[in-house]
Amino acid sequence: MPSLLIQLILSSLLTTLTTSQSSTCRTSCGDIPIKYPFGIDDGCGSPYYRHIFACSPENKLELRTPSGRYPVRNLSYADPHVVVTDPFMWHCEDGEKFRPTRPFSLDTGTHFKLSPQNEYMFFNCSEDDVIIQPKPLFCEHFPEHCDSSCDSASYLCRHLPGCSFALPRSTCCSYYPRATESLRLMLKYCASYASVYWRNVGAPMPYDQVPEYGIRVDFDIPVTTRCLQCQDPLKGGGTCGFDTQNQSFTCLCKDGNSTTHCKDYDIATHSRRIHVIAGTVTAVSVAGAFGIGAAVWYLKKVRAKAPVTCGVQNNENRLF
């Protein structure tokens, strides 16, 4: 009877652990949808974007970069980009009070890049260290054909979005840093900065874009045949993920994990073999780990007391 009970406990606990590993990935954080190639649970999405996003305890999506964690305002998959807010940059409500700031930066090893739709305004820069001068009007539309000076006559400096008259005594110039190092150097000689991106509103030109505060970051969506096959509704409609140990492709399904798709007949085997962590570890799983340890200890104790029969088992000394 004790041996049968232990068998049932072990079977139940192993099933619980397997189920927690093959649970589906979270599909949203707050009101922002989480789709491929991203994931907020390890093993979900593409390994190229592993540990990039985090869902805070307040259910707010955050972007992780070498310079910090930034709240995500918008995430678009149709026009692949992320808009984040930098809590250290200047805002209208700050007025003439410039807080200590730090430059926003991206990991060059990721598939993220700063969008050319961003424009940066710098305030109270040192004229001894920064080239500040007005630029011709066409430079606002074709900055690559102009020099790298900071434009003191830019449209944004003349019309601060949302607060045109917020800085009556401060100087402003507009500049697009082509690298993170350029932004860092600018902030070394300027009091603060603000990033504005041009949001497309779908209106006729020239009113098709409006300026909004934030940093737009563009990204690539890596498309693979295996992922499309995994997502195919006719093949189970799984979620694309990866093995957390070797980062190989994994199709996450309700009944387990597969290396192909959710209607693969070997899915039960895959669910035991693939190491994918989707979601948080439940208290039941933790308890299961302790339960397995206790069961193993009990078996050793029973084995130690079992009578020696020279390798022959009978109904009295049989353990299983």
TrEMBL record:
<keyword id="KW-0732">Signal</keyword>
<keyword id="KW-0472">Membrane</keyword>
<dbReference type="Pfam" id="PF13947">
    <property type="entry name" value="GUB_WAK_bind"/>
</dbReference>
<feature type="transmembrane region" description="Helical">
    <location>
        <begin position="276"/>
        <end position="299"/>
    </location>
</feature>
<keyword id="KW-0812">Transmembrane</keyword>
<dbReference type="GO" id="GO:0016020">
    <property type="term" value="C:membrane"/>
</dbReference>
<keyword id="KW-1133">Transmembrane helix</keyword>
<feature type="domain" description="Wall-associated receptor kinase galacturonan-binding">
    <location>
        <begin position="25"/>
        <end position="86"/>
    </location>
</feature>
<protein>
    <recommendedName>
        <fullName>non-specific serine/threonine protein kinase</fullName>
        <ecNumber>2.7.11.1</ecNumber>
    </recommendedName>
</protein>
<dbReference type="GO" id="GO:0004674">
    <property type="term" value="F:protein serine/threonine kinase activity"/>
</dbReference>
<feature type="domain" description="Wall-associated receptor kinase C-terminal">
    <location>
        <begin position="213"/>
        <end position="256"/>
    </location>
</feature>
<keyword id="KW-0325">Glycoprotein</keyword>
<dbReference type="InterPro" id="IPR032872">
    <property type="entry name" value="WAK_assoc_C"/>
</dbReference>
<dbReference type="InterPro" id="IPR025287">
    <property type="entry name" value="WAK_GUB"/>
</dbReference>
<feature type="signal peptide">
    <location>
        <begin position="1"/>
        <end position="20"/>
    </location>
</feature>
<dbReference type="Pfam" id="PF14380">
    <property type="entry name" value="WAK_assoc"/>
</dbReference>
